[in-house]
Amino acid sequence: MRRLRNVKIVATLGPASNDYRTIRALFEAGADVFRLNMSHGDHAEIRARHEIIRKVEADVGRPIAILADLQGPKLRCGTFADDLAHDLVTGATFRFDLSDRPGDATRVQLPHREIFDALQPGAHLLVNDGKVKLRVEDCGEDFADCTVLAGGPISNRKGVNVPDVVLPLAALSEKDRRDLEFVCELGVDWLALSFVQRAEDVEDARGLAKGRAAILSKIEKPAAEKAFDEILAASDGIMVARGDLGVELPVQNVPPIQKRLVRKCRAAAKPVIVATQMLESMIESPVPTRAEVSDVATAIYEGADAVMLSAESAAGGYPIEAVTTMNNVAIEVEADPTYHEIMRASRMVKRSSVADGIVASAREIAETTDIKAICCFTQSGTTASLVARERPAVPILALTPLTHVARRMCLTWGTNCFITEGEVNRFKLAVVSAARAARQGGFAGETDQIVVTAGVPFNVKGTTNIIRVAPCAERLIYATDPD
Questions:
Q1: pLDDT digit string (tens) for 37-72?
Q2: 218 catalytic, yes or no?
């Protein structure tokens, strides 16, 4: 199934998307990556969703990426009696404490002793992405009595931010470490780390993952934005998680930060996801707001590799419609001549390696002649990522014998991933495989030409050093190739 756009769509799974029929419908509507939120659902539920995704993948015959999003040192309140939500009224009093009793309209558990150890009267607590704001009036080692400054809804496990207090929290909690080992053994492709503050947080997770999954850092703390260059260098990908970032920082700071981070990721040839509240109204409505559509379009115009749905696809009433909307917005934006002008104007011109020159040449050849696709053989995904950084105007076909590499590349802009059968050890075989993939995928016909890039010797990471314009007809390849 060929996508008609280059930006990728990440869809979060949850109660509203928990069965084969819905997950397959989400894929067919446009989802390229499925996110498993480790903050919600036990291991049995996560395993069941993973198995369904892999069954969909087998049935459609196309690689699908799975991203496991670790909870991180996310501060959340406890649960309420009968799972009821409560509206806190401005001026009312409300208590947070360590008791595990179900909450009510006057109190709820805050199961983080380190908060009570650090709190002082006058500090502020923000709940539910900042929708509810409270001021601490009195506190002790196991409680905080607050005044509600800005009322609003509070319900089970809503996030709590403490902007006035520095909390000495480890990047990975014990739960995260258990979850990380579980999903790596399960076979996910990407690990998203929440509340990263420094590059050492990423290296800690990489050591635990032991190469079983790629590491994606979520930028949602001011400290992460300040240390972004080091975090980017240590990560395989980035998520601009605007929810908590917009709570911890003034909201007007978020758009320019988003733009800067997306550009830096593209320069580094590492995938970047723009996430949080992209089509939030579609949790309850089959139609998004015009502002939400513009928000999705802005991320695409900026050159993001992927845009993400959270509660819209996990718990909303219209998960398939949300993916369909995002897919249609992407198709329309990428058909706009202005989009291609922006991609050209923001293209990286600083190149320092043979691989950089090869992929730049492939893009230039494809855009100045009648080439239907750029086909790259890759052992690690690096070549495909470098081609994607160029944002070519023709499709990118990424071919690899490694299933896990093909799945990981599903997050990279414009890549159409193919798993080659058997090991390719000669360039002629690479060209034949590329031509077959282009024809079978509907990217080119018998009379068309493609550009093929690869590294010789084969199956060695980082050796991209050859480029060829080739016909799609196999008889012509064998007739003209001197090998």
A1: 998 889 999 999 999 999 999 999 999 999 999 998
A2: yes
Torsion of CA 338, 326, 248, 168, to 10 degrees: -120
Query: Which is catalytic among the residues 76, 157, 259, 347?
Result: 76
pLDDT in tens, 94-113: 999 999 999 999 999 999 89
Length in residues, the chain: 483
Which residues, given as ranges, of the chain have pLDDT below 50? none
Mark whether 157 is an active-site residue.
Answer: no
β-pairing, 160-161 with 124-127?
antiparallel
The one catalytic residue among 24, 107, 133, 218: 218
Catalytic residue at 276? yes
**Distance in angstroms (rounded) separating the CA atoms of residues 408 and 228:** 22
Domains of the chain, CATH where assigned: 8-73+171-335 (3.20.20.60), 81-161 (2.40.33.10), 354-480 (3.40.1380.20)
In our burial notation (b when 16+ CB lie closer than 10 A, e otherwise), range 228-244 reads: beebbebbbbbbbbbbb
Of the CA atoms within 13 Å of residue 88, those in its CB half-sphere come to 28
**What's the predicted TM-score (pTM) here?**
0.88
